[in-house]
Amino acid sequence: MADTGILSRRGFIVGTGATGLTIGILASCSPGASGPEEPDYSDLPPNDEVNAWVHIDHDDTVTVRIARSEMGQGTLTGLAQLVADELDADWDKVTTVYPTPGENLARERVWRSYSTGGSQGIRGSQDYVREGAAAAKAMLIEAAANEWGVAASECTSADSVITHGPSGQTTTYGAVAGAAGKLAPPLEVTVKDPSEWKIIGEAKKRLDTADKLIGAQVYGADIGLEDVLKDTDATPTELLSASIRQSPKIGATVASFDAAAVENMPGVRKVVALNNPFGEGQNAVAVIAETWWQANSALDALPIEWEGGVDFSTEAFEAELDDGLTSDEAFVGNGGGDLAGAFADAAQVIEATYNMPFQNHACMEPMNTTALYTDDRCEIWCPTQNGEAALAAVSEASGLDIQNCEVYKVHLGGGFGRRGAPDYVQQAVMLAMEVPGTPVKLLWTREEDMKHGFFHPTTKGRVRGALDADGNLTGLHLRISGQSILAALIPQALQDGVDYATFQGLLPPGVDPRLEDQTLKYSFDNFLVDHAMRNPPVRPGFWRGVNLNQNAIYLECFMDELAHAAGRDPLEFRLAHLQDSPEAAAVLQAVADRSGWGQDDGKHRGLCVMYGFGSYVAACSEVTVDEDGVLSIDRIVAATDPGHAVNPQQIEAQVEGSFVYGLSAMLFGEITFEDGVAQETNFDTFNSMRIVDMPEVETIIMPSGGFWGGVGEPTIAVAAPSVLNAIYAATGKRVRQLPIKDQNLRDA
After folding, report:
1. DSSP conformation class of 221
2. Phi, psi values for residue 241, rounded to 5°
3. What is the signed CA dihedral for 401, 402, 405, 407, rounded to 10 degrees?
4. What is the set of domains in the chain, with CATH numbers?
5. Do residues 481 and 532 lie in contact, with contact meaning Cβ atoms separated by under 8 Å?
6. Is 149 left (phi over 0), alpha (psi -120 to 50) or beta?
7. Which of 92, 89, 100, 43 has the alpha carbon at shortest distance from 67?
8. Do residues 722 and 592 touch, judged by C-beta distance below 8 A?
9. pLDDT over 80 (residue 493)
10. pLDDT tens profile 615-634
11. What number of CA atoms fall less than 13 Å from residue 107's CA on the CB side?
């Protein structure tokens, strides 16, 4: 095909003066500076792997195989640090690669889980990846000892060099890696004690930064024919593009479309209707063309008629949510004591109702997948948070045995939970089946991405508190009304109808081992937390932080209201109920101390503390609200205790990034529906924070050791409540309905 003159993202960055601009930056991001000329190993056969986790070249390059997905959160670098430390590798020579889900299946899931969500990337892998690295190190040392005819116990390792103590002989990992790979792995290994760590706990530079700066990083939207040919054994000669239009109305299907109206437009190859990956009937029409612009232009011109669907309205659904707040029927998540007695004897009863609207993941890179189908094989190239789920989706959509399918993962241009769902994968496979032997790259428009997400569910929370005459909290009832994610996506995970994930951050210990990292750390004598399930037809999904986000708002904003109603300091009031959780008390005290809590300096501050995803997190926000009611978030001091801190710099970045996400939802985020159609379709109506809106963020990392907590999701939850509490400190006005965007904070 003739050169169309289309300039790719990579081509633009590489082909402009940006390369000169980044020379100095790359020097600081490169894993290591250039040294003496390396020996020539070209005549040597390549080394086999040492084991599934580690491959070492003759030049001592250590390639760490990582199953989890990189989507900006730094998991790739963090997991590489875990392996490199246990391996005693030279960090400057460490790189990474994704093993494919097909390889994992063929090797009896040696790399275990490919799922990247729930802040599990590092904490859910740390034990077995470190054990794999420790086994590889033992095999390398044994290979060197065999070569020297000495005992392995006489050898030590450091920076990819093995030393025989008595003789002083040395060799490199690259020199013995081939022999090590032929040895039987040790039956048992002992990983290092944290006191022995040298790479874990260090602020190492990210391994993926340099490629991003020069545009060399390949995202799903960048995939071209050359990327396909690099991986597949097939020999396609072109790559086609596709754009898709899904039914704008929830549940609607294709009634008709006039393919003849666009079939003769430039570049158009096919116009097809697609089955709904998660429902009945055909719910989308797509155009396959030589370029994406041609496909999308034809789609814009294509007459499509839709039928059926659900006339859902978020405004009307408010009544159902309100009904749930007062319903006699609700699922109990936590509780204890004599709540009725506490309210009967209360000197003062406080009540407040809060809300959380639907949210879109709004990944910067819209959904996309490139698929290549033949009669006996189907392969895809895609950004996914779960490579194994994507592999299963390929098999299901293509009708081929899973052993005849493959997934080549690329870095994600944002995930936040959205790319755990494989709808876009199945669509791409269905399109590739229309043109066997030719890869098809499906790329959604921003509008499609906004309207057809898996939305963070909408809920409301009504909280009632009983105070005695001395201002002590004697009773607390938190009622959640709203949608269950599990009921819609994984109904088999419900326990006697209860979605315990709804109670993230509020649960008692022992309910479910999978939710032991979401327990309530406050101690209350008399309390009840329950959920009135109200499920709309909107497709829910796991949105960064999931249900911890709204639960933190409901609980922590109300704790602030209780403290003020009782005439007590909000810090002291919280600490009084954290006596059984010294870790939670410590992070809360840390942000209070660092921020200047209690000082008479004219600053308006708000607090929040939560436990979620296995980590203790707290925040203290400072805000200014001017005479016109315009909010400025000036500063947030955050503290996190994740048990072990693998890379402090990445933790700081995750805290800052999570605040952008959480505060954007608080300030602007809201997806509304009218007649079953999402009304917000781009960033002009579903806004995000800009740099000018971003507060100064100070992060206190407080790893107390002994456990592995998450980083990417827990801290998001404390941003909004601390800001909302600071707004009250500045104005005397409680903001209970989100988003803030249309509210005047100075109005009574």
Report:
1. G
2. -120, 155
3. 160
4. 5-213 (3.30.365.10), 220-247+253-307+367-443 (3.30.365.10), 314-359+455-731 (3.30.365.10)
5. yes
6. left
7. 100
8. no
9. yes
10. 999 999 999 999 999 999 99
11. 13
